[in-house]
Design a protein that fits this description.
single chain, 219 residues, alpha/beta, Rossmann fold, six-stranded parallel beta sheet, 49% helix, 13% strand
């Protein structure tokens, strides 16, 4: 009898293990693909997107000299193009500035100004440490309701999902303006898989980002 009970327990444990692993595999494989499918129709070229007042530009790596990385330069160049063609009238440049010697939004703003965008039409967000933080703060701090999101194509589904879940009406413009290093693209696309899973839990938790502050409506 004891031997039979042990076999039953072992069978139940094994079954639960495989069910759990199947669920994890389904989440890791299926969820990113669903998000990509869900938001594919909301991603546009700069000349095809409908005008909105604000473009949200997501930060990326800035070198110690203050020079923007290739991907970030393309994001800001795309946002500047939207501004010049009248697609948007304000830029919200959001990135990481948690260390005194590292300032993504400051470098993004300086670059956009150098391209002819007036400083008065650029709002820096110095606490956009993650995509979730940028989307949360856009709505909670800068009072954004509708926007065009500007980043690379591989990043847009996650950004669109998070901003939508946090109450913004958004579309995306892909900022792929060059052929990137295949290694960088492979790394970025692979990184999006766990990042999209994390985004799902972020959307469920709805926790405020580490830095908030008083509202600063974009006038």
């Amino acid at each position: 009898m004891r031997h039979k009970r042990t076999r039953i327990v072992l069978w139940i444990t094994t079954t639960l293990f495989f069910v759990l692993m199947s669920g994890v595999a389904g989440l890791v494989w299926g969820w990113p693909r669903w998000v990509e499918w869900r938001y594919a129709a909301r991603i546009f070229a700069p000349d095809a997107v409908q005008p909105e007042r604000i473009a949200i530009v997501f930060g990326a790596r800035v070198y110690s000299s203050g020079r923007l990385s290739g991907m970030l330069r393309d994001r800001v160049d795309t946002a500047v193009e939207l501004y010049r063609t009248g697609k948007v009238s304000k830029l919200l440049v959001s990135g990481d500035n948690q260390f005194a010697d590292y300032n993504e939004p400051g470098a993004m703003m300086a670059y956009a100004i150098a391209q002819g965008v007036p400083a008065a039409d650029i709002q820096p967000d110095y606490a956009g440490r993650r995509t979730y933080d940028t989307c949360y703060r856009a709505q909670a701090i800068f009072q954004v309701e509708r926007a065009i999101l500007v980043t690379q194509r591989f990043h847009l589904p996650r950004a669109l999902f998070l901003c939508e879940q946090l109450g913004l009406e958004v579309v995306g413009v892909a900022a792929d303006r060059r052929q990137y290093d295949p290694r960088a693209i492979a790394f970025s696309e692979t990184r999006e898989i766990p990042a999209l899973v994390a985004a799902l839990f972020d959307a469920i938790r709805r926790a405020p980002p580490p830095v908030l502050g008083e509202p600063i409506p974009i006038q």
